[in-house]
Amino acid sequence: MSFSRGPHTFTVTAKLFSKNRERLVDVLRTKSKPRSVILLKGGEETLRNYSDSVINVFRQESYFFWTFGVHEEDFFGAIDIDSGKSILFPPRLPPAYGIICGKINPESYFKEKYGVDEIYFNDKGKVVEVLKKLNTKHLLLLKAENTDSGMTMNSPEFEGRSDFEIDETTLYPVIGNLRVFKTDMELEVMRYAARAASEAHKNLMKSVRPGLFEYQLERGPNSAVLHYGAANAPNNRKLKNGDLCVLDMGTEYNCYASDITITVPCGGRFTEKQKVIYNAVLRANRRVIEAAKPGVRWTDMHHLAERIILEDLKTAGILKGEVEEMIAARVGGIFMPHGLGHFLGVDVHDVGGYLGVSEYDATPRSSLLGLKSLRTTRTLAERMVITVEPGCYFIDTVKKIWLEKFQVRIEDDVVIWEKENEVLSNVPRTIEEIETFMNS
């Protein structure tokens, strides 16, 4: 069975996730003991503030989705590493569900839909019963640290867990690293998501005009706040002619993300000062996309982007002094306080940046301004998908010089290849392209 949003949309087959499971088993056979089984727990529906209303439409936990492609909540999934057999345990829904929410599907439906070997409703004790039939001794559970949020995903608790030897260390770095490198099927989904996001950005560019409010677009001096729109900074100002609109958004299709940022002028024309900053950031973006090749460390790409922006700020007379001294003094971190980009995949800020295992190459996170915000320090390799999003910010709380506060950020989604990198995003980028498009 396959996933799509209708006949006009891209079709994703269960083979994508079968391939992911195959890759996972291939690696774990070299790292785990005989009679080892992976057990993963899917996401749960979350209610809003103790009410009976859900917060949002359910979205699957990302590791579980990468492995099984399951969209519904409250599943368990197992993979026998010795045989490669895959098993899903959907919840058994009460009869009332069929009255309120629609058809209750049988086990055979889920077996066909998700392309696994076996399906069992998760009745009391069923997971442990099946694990014992597999002669399981070692249970590989996922305990995963999110190095962006600092939060830890704890391994699942269930009755009968103590009957097995629990391993919470082997699975996480392996599955996290596999998610970094995209298969051909994953890349096809991500290309589709990026095309959709690109079209949305272009549609929005045509709509930017004075008189709209920030809750319709984000712009002006508030664009200098990286994640403006939080509760303490509501999007309630009206756009004015000459404002810069920084629009950071993407689409998610079958849980695979895109993430694109454009910076465009309200009114359709950049001011001369805006052109200076925009071209500096664009030059950094283009140069990094060209230089980010297999074997290059991502930290060096961050330094490259900083250097180009500082050079152009010096040429414009905004900064004085030697660029090398500015880099050493972390002046680049004042104007670009965030990291250059992040891995992209089933999560927008995808996993694998820092896996805590030397085998996977990341150097320790820096404590220096700008560099401490790098979401990875790994050496680039083919099939990584990473965003390239240099920016230049004039923020009151950091330093206000030369001109009114605003920001420019340009973000593209890039697949790393040996010969020539592939840019998934496709929107007008040069000043001429943007002004021509907005005024056509």
TrEMBL record:
Aminopeptidase P N-terminal domain location: 12-150
One Gene Ontology term from the biological process aspect of the record: proteolysis
CDD domains: Prolidase
Enzyme class: hydrolase
Leader sequence segment: none
Catalysed transformations (reactions): Xaa-L-Pro dipeptide + H2O = an L-alpha-amino acid + L-proline
Keyword terms of this UniProt record: Dipeptidase, Hydrolase, Manganese, Metal-binding, Metalloprotease, Protease
Domain of life: Eukaryota
Family: Belongs to the peptidase M24B family. Eukaryotic-type prolidase subfamily.
Quaternary context: Homodimer.
Name of the protein this chain belongs to: Xaa-Pro dipeptidase
